[in-house]
Design brief:
This protein is mainly alpha-helical. It is 44% helix and 6% strand.
């Protein structure tokens, strides 16, 4: 949507000048020529004459944030509801997009519609949300702007646009006015309809690519912010009770997973610190170990019921078995990046062994690991059931090794430094 709006404005600028002689007042406003605008108004010029793309003088005044020109036009009773031929943009939309709360208020006072939409269903409130102007948001909502309206292209709300642009204060303002943090954008099919040579629909075949998705979208404001690595927006949404475990309606991705997938590790760490996905993941691990270590098993938890309580061949199934079952006990090793008690205690409880990246926190992790085992009733040596990872690069000389390994170290630094994982 952001790219589309820029494209619309660019096109407006590009085609202006078509029939320019028929819109002298619009031309003067486009050039920010206050004196000529005043002269033309006093001479009875058509206040609403439009250039080829539909831009009137009031459009240009709002576009340029020229309050003096706008005031002259409004005092002369220029039409505040006129829309451009390209994009169906109003003067109100341009004023909101500039975050000019005063001009927005003036336009609304002269009966501009706070809920008029563009060609794609976008509202002035969405423009103000992207700009981040809290004052403009307040004026629009107080004048009747619908807080949870969706644009028609992707089903996005003003809150989603604020998250997209990392507008922390705008997010807080929108939520204060009643914006729903749990709404999601439209889920869109990625499978294009096909027809045969006679125009008859061709049945859709199941995708054969492993992991391929047939739908996309269904993103909440938090998912937009996490996807783009907007930490301020993520913090604001979490502070306003956005569900950190709400998955997308398209591919079922959670905020933490979408942050990791896009390389925003500091955002992922923040969400992890808020216990994002933790209950779900811990229950999944518990199920995996049951399937590995028990001949048959059942599970009744917060997120999963295995087997489900449904009729099965005339009776209710009580347990299931993993097929094929492991022939021997399976060891599980997991990296340890944090000394959080919950994470380490969970590993100890399930017999998971730890992998410690080399660095300045090795001794701290080892001591916490030993203490967790002692509290669980098992005495261990310092470092027992831990693996230490050291990265070594061999070369003919020390300087050559440093030079050759530098690129790898820098890549590692990009990942670990935001997480405070470098010694």
């Amino acid at each position: 949507m952001r790219m589309m709006w820029v494209a619309i404005v660019s096109f407006v600028l590009a085609v202006t000048g078509v029939h320019a002689s028929d819109a002298p007042l619009a031309n003067a406003a486009k050039e920010n020529d206050l004196d000529r605008v005043r002269t033309l108004i006093d001479g009875g010029a058509d206040l609403n004459s439009a250039q080829g793309d539909g831009m009137t003088a009031l459009h240009w005044a709002a576009f340029h944030d020229n309050v003096e020109v706008a005031d002259l036009l409004l005092a002369a009773d220029a039409d505040v509801s006129v829309q451009t031929r390209v994009g169906a943009l109003t003067p109100l939309w341009f004023a909101a997009n500039n975050g000019n709360a005063g001009l927005v208020d003036s336009l609304l006072t002269t009966e501009a519609d706070a809920n008029v939409v563009t060609a794609t269903g976008a509202t002035a409130l969405m423009a103000a949300a992207m700009t981040g102007s809290v004052e403009t948001i307040d004026v629009l909502v107080e004048r009747g702007a619908f807080i949870n309206s969706r644009e028609t292209a992707n089903g996005q709300t003003a809150l989603m646009f604020a998250a997209w642009e990392n507008r922390q204060e705008a997010i807080a303002a929108l939520v204060r006015h009643g914006a729903h943090v749990g709404l999601t954008s439209f889920v869109v099919s990625m499978i294009e309809p096909r027809v045969d040579e006679y125009g008859n629909p061709v049945p859709v075949q199941r995708r054969r690519v492993p992991g391929g998705n047939s739908v996309m979208g269904g993103l909440s404001a938090l998912l937009f912010a996490a996807r783009d690595g907007h930490m301020d927006a993520v913090r604001a949404l979490v502070a306003n009770e956005a569900d950190i475990d709400q998955v997308s309606g398209g591919d079922g991705t959670s905020p933490m997973v979408i942050a990791i997938a896009n390389g925003h590790y500091s955002v992922a760490q923040f969400l992890l610190d808020q216990a994002a996905n933790r209950d779900l993941v811990e229950e999944q691990v518990e199920i995996i170990f049951k399937s590995f270590n028990e001949r048959s098993f059942s599970h009744r938890g917060k997120n999963y019921t295995i087997p489900p309580k449904v009729p099965y061949r005339g009776y209710e199934l009580e347990e299931i078995t993993l097929v094929p079952r492991p022939k021997k006990l399976i060891e599980c090793w997991q990296p340890i990046f944090s000394v959080s008690p919950r994470g380490i205690d969970f590993m100890v409880r399930h017999g998971i062994k730890g992998v410690v990246p080399g660095g300045g926190r090795v001794e701290e992790i080892a001591e916490r690991w030993q203490e967790a085992h002692r509290l669980a009733g098992r005495e261990t040596e310092l470092g027992e059931d831990l693996a230490l990872v050291l990265q070594i690069h061999l070369a003919d000389t020390q300087q050559q090794a440093v030079d050759e390994a530098r690129c790898w170290f820098e890549e590692q630094l990009k990942v670990l430094a935001p997480l405070d994982r470098m010694p």
